[in-house]
């Protein structure tokens, strides 16, 4: 349900039939924080997926090109740590969750491994 609450119903319908969920979070400063905040959509979507029976999760960290500096490993690890902490609380095993940094805008780490 990309970024809009009006799509939650569609997200629930699709998720209820899924074996695996891909949770996309934005790496940009402020964007990630908004999504992971108490009422943020990142939290909401992860919780809904687990509640609906999706036990396998992949986390895609998008907009790595917009971090400071671009493609910041420190920022990626910060996001990974915070998301791992939350998903563990709701029932996922963070060790079994793949975290994939990428840039949709530039196509980095989408079809081929990125050098960045």
Automatic annotation (TrEMBL):
Stored InterPro entries: P-loop_NTPase, T_Tr_GTP-bd_dom, TRAFAC_GTPase_members
GO molecular function, one term: translation elongation factor activity
Stretches assigned to the Tr-type G domain: 1-116
Keyword tags: Elongation factor, GTP-binding, Nucleotide-binding, Phosphoprotein, Protein biosynthesis
Source taxon at top rank: Eukaryota
Protein name: Elongation factor-1a
Lineage, uppermost ranks: Eukaryota, Metazoa, Ecdysozoa, Arthropoda, Hexapoda
